[in-house]
Amino acid sequence: MPSSNNDAITDIEELHRKAILDKQSTYIDPSTGFTVFTELAHLKRGKCCGNMCRHCPYGYANVQGLNNGRSHSENNNALAKSGDREGTALLVRKIMDGTYYDYTTKRSNNTRHREPSIVDQETVREIDDEPKEPPIKGKG
């Protein structure tokens, strides 16, 4: 059931969407009270921190043991390539100009058997070639 403006938003995805539309880097998880980073915060950081964050736009690229050497293009959950400044800057601009959900909705509808997007053509590289940093404890 959709919540009215007077009701507290308790759905995490709805909270995240509202935070992104409001250009916020965080929101408060109502069930835990924890501060949660939005995709905007992660995109501004520019790379996956390896902590398996809830809204990681990089498909958990730097989470040890998770990606089994798959490239960004093979990871359907990734919206961006970890460490790609141009690609992440493009997505940050889309958030700031209000077109991010137009882009991500269109992209998610075409994840299987799709032609590479402009971002994909410029940014897809093997993640195995990147140096791995140890996870930062307490972030995410």
Structural class, by secondary structure, is: mainly alpha
Order of helices and strands: HEEHHHH
Proportion in helices: 25-40%
Shape: globular
Strand content: under 5%
The pLDDT mean sits at 74
Radius of gyration: 15 Å
| Number of alpha- plus pi-helical segments | 5
Strand order of the largest sheet: 1-2
Query: In whole angstroms, how far apart are the ends?
Result: 29 Å
Give a verbal description of the structure.
By secondary structure, the chain is mainly alpha-helical. 31% of the residues lie in helices and 4% in strands. Strands 1-2 form a two-stranded antiparallel ribbon. β1 (26-28) and β2 form a beta hairpin.
Based on the model shown, name its key terms:
140 residues, mainly alpha, two-stranded antiparallel ribbon, 31% helix
Question: What is this structure, in a nutshell?
Answer:
The protein is built from 5 helices and 2 strands. With 140 residues, the chain is mainly alpha-helical.
